[in-house]
């Protein structure tokens, strides 16, 4: 594939060794500009980038090369959504009025809503129904420029349904044009009729060994991470560590919810055990920020959730100033129904005071790092996977500035060198 006639190429970085950017470097993007629209990107049959730069220097092309006209627009990396819950049944639109009236997250859950409501619907749904709903959701994510996601189970809370959700995600990863880093999140909540201790024992003694057996059989290949909702009223720090370490013992990487509603010290524990990512972080402590920076753990910030729940946003500026690896996720789920990373970037700029450059890095290179893909995804450089967007715009910033109008701006989405979406 040869993409030509580009006015601007936003590379983020121009190498295949930089896995993330922190601090002031988040504002120093590698961007190529050509007022004459003479920039191009060449992609090999292996789906990797072979050349980025001026058209006249691209060299000899094979006779079967497919030409894509950039029409004087912009190329930039497609988005990596670092935190999603896309497999579920039913919706929770009826809870929105409760939240608008002032009900807290825990109050909604105690009233029979929240995760428990979705769990009932998901347990009752067939595997085919869940897959069909997921396929529609992923199609809309793709159209919004997202080509790689982290995706969690967690609306089953029992052995059968959690494995059903993992199978759905694994099937989607192998059959749909979007890449999925699957996360086992059986500790998303304590199910009704159980206790924190019982659910912890179920996960550690029963479900994690079943996942291990399935992976050894060559199944559940996309299951890479383990998550726990480490929070007051759900799983405390001790239980969370026990579950995460059990996941580590079978090769799963800790990437978990921490310090969203209350501070309980989950971040410090996560940094100590080498968590790759921790999400939410609205109530993170100064010591937690320092621990994340030292450990190289990615802070996965979720602007839509804080916005919808009217929470004080996490201290993103303090994190950036202290060289924490800041990334972004949509947290798409029945409680926060936003699947557009351009909207997430806009919210991050407005509510968390990120610059547009910082938001773009957080939604591409740094979010790729949070799921172990920082050296291959999230930037346009030779040797990296060819995951990118073409914009019908003369500046990439319009994707953030023109909030919610991304369907008008994104003309083409490319995954592994294949065109997977074109605007009609």
Automatic annotation (TrEMBL):
GO terms for cellular component: cytoplasm. The lineage of its organism: Eukaryota, Metazoa, Ecdysozoa, Nematoda, Chromadorea. Pathway: Amino-acid degradation; L-histidine degradation into L-glutamate; N-formimidoyl-L-glutamate from L-histidine: step 3/3. Its EC number is 3.5.2.7. This is Probable imidazolonepropionase. GO terms for molecular function: imidazolonepropionase activity; metal ion binding. The keyword Metal-binding applies. Belongs to the metallo-dependent hydrolases superfamily. HutI family. Residues 75-420 form the Amidohydrolase-related domain.
């Amino acid at each position: 594939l040869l993409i030509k006639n580009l006015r601007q190429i936003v590379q983020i970085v121009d190498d295949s060794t930089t896995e993330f950017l922190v601090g002031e470097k988040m504002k120093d993007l590698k961007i190529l500009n050509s007022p004459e629209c003479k920039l191009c990107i060449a992609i090999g049959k292996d789906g990797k980038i072979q050349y980025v730069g001026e058209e006249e220097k691209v060299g000899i092309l094979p006779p079967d090369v497919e030409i894509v006209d950039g029409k004087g627009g912009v190329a930039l990396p497609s988005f990596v959504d670092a935190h999603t819950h896309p497999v579920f049944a039913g919706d929770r639109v009826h809870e929105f009025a409760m939240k608008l009236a002032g009900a807290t997250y825990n109050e909604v859950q105690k009233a029979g809503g929240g995760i428990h409501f979705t769990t009932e619907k998901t347990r009752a749904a067939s595997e085919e129904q869940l897959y069909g709903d997921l396929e529609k959701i992923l199609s809309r994510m793709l159209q919004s420029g997202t080509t790689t996601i982290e995706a969690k189970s967690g609306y089953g809370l029992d052995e059968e349904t959690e494995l059903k959700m993992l199978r759905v995600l694994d099937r989607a990863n192998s059959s749909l044009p979007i890449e999925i880093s699957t996360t086992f999140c059986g500790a998303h909540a304590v199910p009704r009729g159980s206790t924190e201790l019982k659910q912890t024992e179920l996960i550690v003694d029963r479900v994690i060994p079943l996942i291990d057996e399935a992976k050894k059989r060559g199944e559940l290949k996309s299951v890479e991470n383990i998550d726990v909702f480490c929070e007051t009223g759900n799983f405390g720090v001790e239980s969370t560590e026990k579950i995460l370490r059990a996941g580590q013992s079978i090769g799963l990487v800790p990437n978990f919810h921490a310090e969203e509603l209350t501070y309980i010290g989950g971040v410090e524990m996560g940094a100590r055990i080498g968590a790759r990512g921790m999400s939410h972080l609205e109530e993170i402590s100064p010591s937690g920020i320092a621990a994340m920076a030292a450990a190289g753990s990615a802070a996965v910030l979720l602007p839509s959730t804080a916005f919808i729940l009217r929470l004080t946003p996490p201290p993103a500026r303090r994190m950036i100033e202290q060289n924490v690896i800041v990334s972004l996720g949509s947290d798409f789920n029945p409680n926060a129904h936003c699947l557009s990373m351009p909207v997430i970037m806009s919210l991050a700029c407005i509510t968390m005071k990120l610059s547009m450059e910082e938001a773009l890095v957080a939604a591409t290179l740094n979010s790729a790092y949070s799921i172990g893909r920082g050296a291959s995804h999230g930037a346009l450089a030779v040797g990296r996977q060819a995951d990118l967007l073409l914009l019908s715009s003369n500046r990439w910033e319009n994707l953030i500035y023109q909030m919610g109008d991304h369907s008008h701006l994104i003309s083409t989405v490319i995954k592994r060198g294949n065109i997977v979406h074109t605007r009609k």
